[in-house]
Amino acid sequence: MFQINEVLQYDQTLYRVLMVFDYYVLWIKVHNDKAFPEFVEIAELEQGFQDEVLTRTDDPYSDIVKVTPEFGSTAQIKRDDNYAAIRPLVELEDCYEPKARGRMVNQIVAETGKTKQSIYRFARRYWQRGQVPNALLPDYKNSGAKGQKRRATTKKLGRPRKYMPGIGALIDDFTEKLFRIAIERHVLTDKGKSFTYAHNRLKDIYTQYFPELPESELPTYWQMEHFYKREYRQVEKIEKQAGDIKLNKDIRPLTGTAAADVLGPGMRYEIDATIADIYLVSDTERGNIVGRPVIYMVIDVFSRMVAGFYIGFENPSYAAAIQALHMASTDKSEYCREQGFKVSPEQWPCIGLPSALLADRGELMGHQIECLEKGFGVRLENTPPFRSEAKGVVERSFRTFQQVFKPFSPGVVTGSKIKKHGERDYRLDAKLTIKEFTKIILASVLYHNQYHVMKDYDKAVDMPTDLPNNPLAIWNWGLQHRTGRLRKPEAEHLRVALMPRTRATISDSGVCIFGVYYTSAELLKLGWMHRGKEVKRPKTIEVAYDLAIADYIYLYPDSNKNEYFVCQLATRSRQFSGASFWDVWQQSDELKQTHAEAKLIADERKRALERQVIEVVKLAEKAAPKHNGLSDAERIRNIRGNRAEEKDKERKAWAYKPVEIDTSQSAEVHYLAEPDDDLDFPDFSAQLFKDDEDS
Basic residues compositional bias: what residue ranges (predicted)? Predict the structure, then answer.
C-alpha cells in the first residue's frame, strides 16, 4: 500500500517513507533540521486516511533527480565526497536503531575526520530528499538571492572603490527611474545606438537634477548595465532593438515549414522577381551593354518544382508577371525546343493553374488580376509588407539559380562599381546576351526540376523513405497519392485573361484607349460606329490589351461574361502600327509636348491677329461717313446695285492681260506623251466610298 520515497502529509507535516515492513513504516519529517527516522504503525496510517488527516502529496524535492552538475565542478565534488562519507551509514540495515547508528557515526568520524554534526546533517538531508546521491548537492541556487533587488539606504552597494576617487552614486528608486528612461529611449530601439551613448545621456539628465555633483559621483556605466541586465529579459531586448520589420523577417522563431501547409502539387504557387547579378550585352550589337535583366520565378510549394519563369528587361511589374504566369500554366515543350532543349511534358508536367498564388503586395494587387481569381478560380494571396520570408521557397531559389552561372560568367556583380587600386569595373566584362543568359537559366531549371536533391526537404509522415528528394519525383508522387490541384485552361483564353485591362470609350470613330482608335466587323454589326443621334452605344466598355503590341485589343461586350472579340488598329491611328503600348505612351507624351509648345506660339500669334483686326475695325469706323443723305430704307434697297458695281470692279481688277506675242514665226512642238495616252488624274471615288463589307 505504501511505497519507498513517497511523501505523506499528516496534520500539515510532510513525511517521507524510508522503509516498509509488515506492520510498520519507517519515515522521517521532511522539513525538520533535527529529525531522525521513526516507526509508525500501518494501521495508524490507514486510520489517518479514514479520518482524512493523512494524504499523499507531491514530492517537494522531485527535481533533484534531473540535476547533472558539470564534471569537476565544486557541486559535483562535494556531492560525491559527502555521499562517500555517509554511505556506510545509509546502507546499514538497522540504521534506524539509535545505538547502531551512533556506533557507525563514530566510526565514520574517526575515518574521515568530519564532525558528527556534519555526518548527521548529510544523512538527514539524504533521507529527507529522496535517498539519492543528488540529495547531497549544495543549495547554490539559494545563494546570492538571485533575481532579488538589493536596496541601499545610506551606503552604495558593492565593493568600495580602489582607484577612482569618490564614493559613488546611491542607486535608489529615482535613479532607477532615470536608468529606465535612458535605456528605453536610446537602447531599446532600432536606431542602433550604443549603451555608452545611453549612459552619457543618463548623466546629462542626472546632472540636471544634481548640478553640484562631480563626475566621480554620477551613476557609473557598470551600475546602469547591471540594472539593464537585471530588469530586462533577453526576448524584450531582442524585439525592441530589432524593430517590427526586422523582427518578423529575420529574428522571430520559425515554428513551421512551407510544405506542411499544402496537400499536393499545384495547391500553392509562389511568384517573385529579382534583378540578376550580371550585366548583359545587346543581341544585335555585342558591344552595347544593356544592363541587368529581371528574373521572375513561379515555384510549386509542395514539390519545389519551377513551373515557369520570365527573363527580360521589364521592371518587376504586372506586365512581366503575367508572362511568367502564362508560361507556368501552359505546355513548355515548344518553348524548350526553340531554346535548343528537347523536353517532353512528362519531364516538365506543370501545365495548368494552381489553387492559390502567393505574391508580393505589388504587381498582383488590384482589379487587373481579378479575372484570374473570378474567371479561373485561382485564390490570390498577398504577403504582408516587408515580409519577404513569407515566400521563402521562391526567395531561396534566386540564390540557387544564380550560383549556377556566377562562378563562370563574365560581367557578374562583384565588389564595387568604382575602380579602386587598379580594380576593373565588372560592367565592362559583360559578354552574354539575353538569349544566352536565358538558355543558362533554362538549363538550370531543367536540372533543378529533374535531378536536384533537396537535403532539407521536410517529408510528410506518409512519404516513403525510398522517394528521391527531387522536385519531379515528389511532384509525381503527390499526383498519385495526394490530390492534384492544377486546372488546365485554354491557352489563348488564359493569355487574354491575364492581359491588363482598362475602360475604353466608344464613338463613331471606333473604340479608343490611350488616344488610339480600333475597329472591327463586330462593332459595325452592333451599329456602334454609325452616326446619328438615334444611335445607341455604351459610353465606356472594358477591353484587354497586350503591352507588347498596339495593333490589337480585346473587347468584352458583356461585363458578366468572359467572351471577347478582337479589334484591329483603325486607319486614323495607323501611325502606331507595329508599335507597343510603351511606344504609344511615349509618342503621345511627345505629341502633347509638341502641341503644348505650338500652342504657346499660336496663342501669341492669335493675340497679334486680334490686335490687327481691332486696329482695322477702328480705322474703318473712323472712315465711315456719319450721314450720306440717304435714309436707312434707301440704303438697304441699294445693296443689290452696290454689290453689282463692286463685282464689276473686282472682275476688271482680276482680268489677265497677256503680253503681246510675235506670231510671224512658228514654234516647234514637243509632245510629252503619245497622242492616245490618257493623262487625266486618276479617280479613286469608287475605292473611297465603297462599303467595307464589299471590300
Answer: 147-159
